[in-house]
Amino acid sequence: MMVALAGQKITASMLNSLAPTGHASSGVNTTAGTTTSTSYTDTLSGTTSVSVAFIVPPSGKIAVTVFGSTDNSADNYSVISYRISGAAGTVAASDNWQTYFRNTNEGGVGRRSFQTGLTPGAAGTITMQHKVSGGTGTFNNREILWEPLPA
User: What is the number of other CB atoms lying within 10 angstroms of the CB of residue 17?
Assistant: First the structure.
């Protein structure tokens, strides 16, 4: 990131290095699906995965927000996370940016997290991941939102 010193003219290059490029976008799926997997998976029975394509801004930093409603047949945890793939870089699903709900009644969950060190200008895909601590998790009204971040 370029920094202007006192008395120095600000250039377009300096301003561009501070501003994120691209635009926020999201992927949505409103069809419910289920899993009994205790490790992260894209696959839910009865529906398709949720993903969104993006281009990494010059900063190499993005914010990712996941939303969904979930419940569990056995009052165990139903967990949502995400993974990143493609030329942007590989980031595995992690409990570090998970959101979860534990109940047999449906509840909404969401979490915003930040990813850094991605390859500027490269294309990537963010894909929602799901798992349970036991029982059968049902996931519905899922959305992934990504936003470019400045340097």
Answer: 15
DSSP 78-146: EEEEEEEESTT--B---GGG-EEEE-SS-EEEEEEEEE-S--TT-EEEEEEEEEESSS-EEEEEEEEEE
Q: Where are the domains of the chain?
A: 23-148
Q: What's the one-letter identity of residue 35?
A: T
CA–CA distance, 46 with 150 (Å, rounded to integer)? 39
pTM of the model: 0.85
87-119 residues labelled b (16+ CB within 10 A) or e (exposed) = ebbebebeeebbbbbbeeebeebeeebebeebe
Question: Are residues 111 and 66 in contact, defined by beta-carbon separation less than 8 angstroms?
Answer: yes
Query: What tens digit of pLDDT does each residue of 74-121 get?
Result: 989 999 999 999 999 999 999 999 999 999 888 999 999 999 999 999
CB-CB contact of 52 with 144 (8 Å):
yes
Provide the CATH topology of domain 23-148: Jelly Rolls (2.60.120)
What is the C-alpha separation between 115 and 56, in angstroms, rounded?
A: 10
